[in-house]
Amino acid sequence: MKIESIKLRRINMPYLAPFQTSFGVEEGNTHIIVCVKADGLIGWGECVAGPEPYYSAETVETAWHILRDFLIPNLLGKNISSVQDVLAIGERVRGHNMAKAGLESACWDLFAKARGVSLSQMLGGARDKVAVGVSVGLQATPADLVTRVAGYLSEGYPRIKIKIEPGRDVELAAAVRKEFPEILLQVDANSAYSLDDIATMRQLDQYNLLLIEQPLGCDDIFDHARLARELKTPICLDESIHSISDANCAMELGACRIINIKPGRVGGFTASKKIHDACAARNVPVWCGGMLESGIGRAGNIAIASLPNFKLPGDISASNRYFREDLVEPAFELNADGTINVPTAPGIGVEVQMDRLEKVTTRREEFRA
Ligand code: OSB
Ligand code: MG
């Protein structure tokens, strides 16, 4: 099929509450929505680069630049028969995984729609609902955190992740554990510590956590391997894993026993699937991370999380955990058993609501063949 046009939209969708991590505060989703047209079909994708280079080196501006000046011009007007063709065209561009993933995911949606199959089916999904959890940002006080966690548990989320940073770590884990001795609980440090903080890590090791996510450097594998040997709690890597090579290296060195896969961070669904398969071959479970996406990006996360080696609950929450109104219908809802249904309609399986998308669009550019 010939790619006729590609439209980029920067959006600004305020979150119900600001999301605070060790690297900063996010007030809303300012991602780029990618819309690809061919053969009377429309494919949708979400580029998850944020406004600031704090979680990753990429930002909305760098992604827009790479899409506009390199990825899109090379793709427009080309006759494409598979997502592999799209990847091959983008291969010369080094790095910029989020920009690549935004475009690739729109093409996956397009090809799945052309074939009349769901994205989950096309990716090799093995389940019709996925286990999910909620990622809770830093709160003003430990008591506020406990209140928030209680709220999410009462909504039915079976797994809680709390953000930590130096000075706000053991106290938070202890407060939540004391109130909820049995829940599935994990922590995410977003690279805020170094090996000098081993004493803190040993204390966290006492709270029966499912995992400690990305405690050390955002590109580090070596120190994580050292730390892993000192702890009984599994280390899970997020920021450090950008490719299949990173994943193999981390597993070979024993730097992690679990990997968080975010399609944006690793360059798309094809790369996610490869990492998923490599982890499965080594008996390393994976789970799907989130970037506080709109329903467009979340639909893709749910599809990839339906693959068999996604064995831990994902950071994939219902639409109403993030927004007053999501961009898609039907909105994502939490089932009573702590899962979210995998859409079965073709492609991402949810309908983008154009009126809502228009309302949140703050910048747009269209490219034609
Ligand atoms: O480290 O997992 C992270 C959001 C933005 C940047 C980094 C992270 C996160 C989350 C959000 O934890 C999870 C979600 O989308 O619900
Ligand atoms: Mg993380």
By CATH reckoning, the class of the largest domain would read Alpha Beta
Q: Which ligands does the model contain, each kind named once?
A: 2-succinylbenzoate, magnesium ion
The whole-angstrom Rg is 20 Å
Q: Give the DSSP E fraction (strand runs of 2 or more residues).
A: 15-25%
Question: Nutshell version of this structure?
Answer:
With 369 residues, the protein is α/β, with parallel strands linked by helices.
Question: Explain this structure to me?
Answer:
The chain has 14 helices and 17 strands. The mean pLDDT is 97. The two termini are 13 Å apart. The protein folds into two domains: 3-116 and 351-368, 2-Layer Sandwich (Enolase-like, domain 1), CATH 3.30.390.10; 122-341, Enolase-like C-terminal domain (TIM Barrel, Alpha-Beta Barrel). 50% of the residues are buried. Strand 11 (235-237), helix 9 (244-253) and strand 12 (258-261) form a beta-alpha-beta unit. The protein has helices at 60-75, 83-90, 97-115, 119-123, 142-155, 170-179, 198-204, 222-230, 244-253, 263-266, 269-281, 295-304, 319-322, 354-360; strands at residues 5-11, 13-21, 24-29, 32-38, 41-47, 129-131, 134-136, 159-163, 184-188, 212-213, 235-237, 258-261, 286-288, 328-329, 339-341, 351-352, 361-368. It is 37% helix and 21% strand. The chain is α/β, with parallel strands linked by helices. Bound molecules: 2-succinylbenzoate and magnesium ion. Residues 55, 135, 188, 190, 238, 289-292, 315, 317 line the site of 2-succinylbenzoate (OSB).
